[in-house]
Design a protein that fits this description.
- The protein is built from 14 helices and 22 strands.
- By secondary structure, it is α/β, with parallel strands linked by helices.
- It has 4 domains: about 1-120, NAD(P)-binding Rossmann-like Domain (Rossmann fold, 3-Layer(aba) Sandwich); about 140-220, 2-Layer Sandwich (Alpha-Beta Plaits), CATH 3.30.70; about 230-320, NAD(P)-binding Rossmann-like Domain (Rossmann fold, 3-Layer(aba) Sandwich); about 355-450, 2-Layer Sandwich (Alpha-Beta Plaits).
- Helix 6 (about 120-135) packs across helix 9.
- The model has no long low-confidence stretch (mean pLDDT about 90).
């Protein structure tokens, strides 16, 4: 595909890094010439220096030939205008980053008039991810395949759960319902497990499941935690607003702590069903005074990663059931496990995944077989949903007779309305959707997984 990216901030660079090796033709536009020069040297891309909303700059970038223009500058209005100009010049699809809550309703109403294929809001997307994790209190990351019929979730093998000490082979014999452990993070090691793999305490397990059977599996494995009702949020960011607003509609009891008086007053006005406290959410005494010990969930959303990490560690020491931490700097992810931080959310990764999933779906309509892609374990593992839409020689053959590449696992087969967690006797049929988990990168076709 021919893709133009306008704005090379953290999200723009994250998306560029994800797409650069996918055989797309990519042009980047930014007003910072040094940034453009560095990225041209790092990736095989074209670059134009200038205002991405300017028609002359877009013409220089050959936007009229673009299959997709993604505008990710800091200015909502610039992004909307850039997409309008791109559509005027002939770009087939456009994506705009729009963050201001004031624009949300009119953006939805005017999306077609503005020629926008997709509107992304990093803070809103991050809040939705956090709500997912709070609603499913026993799991960490949650990804959806086949319109939600199949789930890929992350769980921690905690002391006392029935998974510890079990081999996957024994586990499959005990379980009568549809689940499969398809990737494991053990310390810094990432494993695509075989049947002989034995689960240890502290392993982070990525599990595919029929959505209807996940609760039963969690219950049998003694992974169900008490339902979450009381939630404390630290920081009055846009993410915090979207999160508190979404949770309050679901009848959670929300307490939000924000140190800035003006921001706290605004939050209190906008969120009448949320208890807003003006104070320093990193202050030990204030957290105790506001009842951190009685909270079921704690969400750290200040603008400083290190603050979020420290208060999350304190929440863990207070035995809060679920702690969720916003981390922007990906270099910090490697140390989170050793600090006891189990749930980290990064708005840039959430939005990058959303945009890349859209690109994969767009590419699928042009001949690619990848419907959905998620990146797991700090981008070290990919979970891909392929469409088996053209006849292949390996169809209708038991999986045990096929040779998959090392570190590849077929995690799920969706056949019409059925979700199949495969064993060696299962086979892929024409028309199936197939979920593959692998440490390999840049697979674009189902045939890529076989030797």
């Amino acid at each position: 595909m021919n893709i133009v990216i306008i704005g090379l901030g953290t999200i723009g660079r994250t998306i560029l890094g994800s797409l650069a090796s996918d055989k797309h033709t990519i042009t980047i536009i930014d007003e910072n010439g040094d940034k453009i020069e560095q990225l041209i040297e790092k990736y095989d891309v074209y670059g134009v220096v200038g205002n991405g909303a300017c028609m002359d700059i877009q013409q220089e970038a050959h936007v009229k030939e673009a299959d997709l223009v993604i505008s990710l500058t800091r200015g909502d209005e610039v992004n909307i205008l850039a997409c309008l100009v791109a559509k005027k010049l002939g770009a087939k699809n456009t994506i705009a980053r729009v963050r201001n809550p004031d624009y949300r309703n009119q953006m939805v109403a005017m999306r077609e008039d503005l020629g926008l294929s997709l509107i992304v809001n990093p803070e809103r997307e991050a809040a939705a991810e956090i709500i997912n994790r709070i609603n499913l209190s026993s799991v960490g990351q949650v990804e959806h395949f086949a319109k939600g019929r199949a789930l890929l979730v992350e769980v921690l093998a905690e002391p006392g759960c029935a998974l510890v000490g079990e081999s996957l082979l024994n586990l499959s014999k005990k379980l009568n319902h549809r689940t499969l452990i398809c990737a494991v993070q053990r310390g810094e090691e990432v494993i695509i497990p075989s049947g002989q793999f034995v689960i240890q305490e502290g392993d982070r397990l990525h599990i595919t499941s029929d959505a209807n059977f996940l609760g039963k599996f969690l219950s049998e494995m003694r992974l169900i935690k008490s339902p979450i009702r009381n939630v404390m949020i630290i920081g009055g960011s846009r993410t915090a607003y979207y999160l508190a607003s979404g949770l309050s509609k679901k009848r959670y009891n929300i307490k939000l702590i924000e140190r800035n008086r003006e921001t706290a007053d605004t939050m209190a006005e906008l969120l009448p069903h949320v208890t807003v406290v003006r104070g320093d959410g990193t202050n030990h005494d204030l957290l105790l005074e506001e009842g951190i010990e009685s909270m079921d969930a704690f969400v750290a959303l200040t603008g400083i990663d290190e603050e979020n990490m420290i208060v999350s560690m304190f929440a863990n020491s207070m035995k809060v059931n679920k702690t969720i931490t916003r981390i922007k700097n990906e270099d910090l992810y490697g140390m989170l496990g050793s600090l006891g931080i189990k749930n980290a959310v990064s708005p840039k990764f959430v939005v990058a995944d959303r945009i890349i999933s859209y690109i994969r779906a767009l590419d699928n309509s042009r001949g690619s077989n990848v419907l959905t892609l998620y990146r797991l374990v700090n981008n070290r593992v990919e979970a891909l949903e392929f469409s088996a839409k053209k006849q292949e020689k390996f169809f209708d053959t038991p999986l045990k007779e096929l040779k998959l590449k090392k570190n590849c696992l077929i995690a799920c087969i969706i056949r019409k309305n059925d979700v199949i967690i495969p064993d060696g006797n299962s086979s892929i049929h024409l028309g199936d959707n197939v979920i593959v988990v692998t440490t390999h990168k840049n697979f674009t076709d189902l045939t890529d997984i076989f030797e």
